[in-house]
Design goal:
single chain, 395 residues, alpha+beta, Aminopeptidase, OB fold (Dihydrolipoamide Acetyltransferase, E2P), 2 domains, 13-stranded mixed sheet, 19 strands, 25% helix, binds zinc ion
Length: 395
Amino acid sequence: MGLRKFIGGASPPANRESKRDNPLRFNDNASMAKRARFSLGGVTVPAGASRQIRMKISERYTGDPISLPVHVVRAKRSGPTVFVSAAVHGDELNGMGVIHDLIFGEPIELTHGTLILVPVVNIFGLEVQSRYMPDRRDLNRSFPGSSKGSLTSRVARAFFDEIISKCDYGIDLHTAAGGWTNFPNVRGDLTNRSVRRIAKAFGCELMVNGKGPDGSLRREAVRAGCPTIILEAGEPLKIEPGVLAIGLRGVRNVLRELGMMAGKVEVPAYQLRVDKSVWVRAEVGGILRFHVAPGTFVEEGMAVATNAGIFGETQNQLLAPADGIVLGMTTLPTVKPGEPVCHLALPTRSLRSLRKALKDGKPNTLYHQVRKDLATNVSVSEQEIDATVHGGGEA
Ligand SMILES: [Zn+2]
């Protein structure tokens, strides 16, 4: 059963739990026949083949077509259809790098189902290094869109009808917005069993619970019956090696979990569901010196940054209001009163137990690599970074 029935019809039921967890579902003849005829943008992709498709989504002033590049991989055997999309915000490039590695890196041996890879959704924004669409709308607040609506709304609708409506699961790859970086974390409605399943399988240490804003791709995809998560990792306008490795492992993990690829899901040393977070904000204008990096464990009362005046004198220290893990932080040293400096995920387990899990687990080189690769343009005390791993150095 696809999602076509929802398109243009009455609103789909909210939070519908997917019944797609049972792989047997794909073995019935009707489903196999339907999936054997897979086509996208008017191009048919036979089972066992892959195609690069240019799917028309809009037009230039000249009337020439603007096309969405889509790479489709189909296994010989039936199974779930999964999309991986990137750059719905046109300046968020890490996900595009992940998709390139999926296509050109170690080959994906897809045993079951169909994988749809969309390296850039907001082509308009990509061209001008912008998060937004040319009509200044945010594409990720415009789903499911309308074929009679604004430029952005029509692009959203085309993507929804041609891609999401054909899919059983989705992964949408994001980075932080300008001037900010995120420790790699997945986000989704963890009260939905199928969303929770792929969020956990992806394998990030932090899983942030939430449906997402109205009109966001993940919220509207889930509403339409396609369980979808997002990855939030790193900075915009960059392709960061550690984030690529995390994204690649995550997509492969989800494909393994869904029985589309052979192999076991690789699990991290610790994994936390995040239901609460707090922001640390600047109290006075000044220049920051940081004492934490993305992923650092911070104890309540620990200084996350020192705010200096323009002649370098210390004005105040910004303290963690609770035990937390740095989910995101600014990459700009300059702040005005009220501007966010750090976003802390509040852990549901003690930091001591998390440190122990990191120490006792297999040497997790990827965890350390991603921590080294993030926020490289920010000056941070090494001692505080080491505190995460070694449990010392608390201020
Ligand atoms: Zn984004």
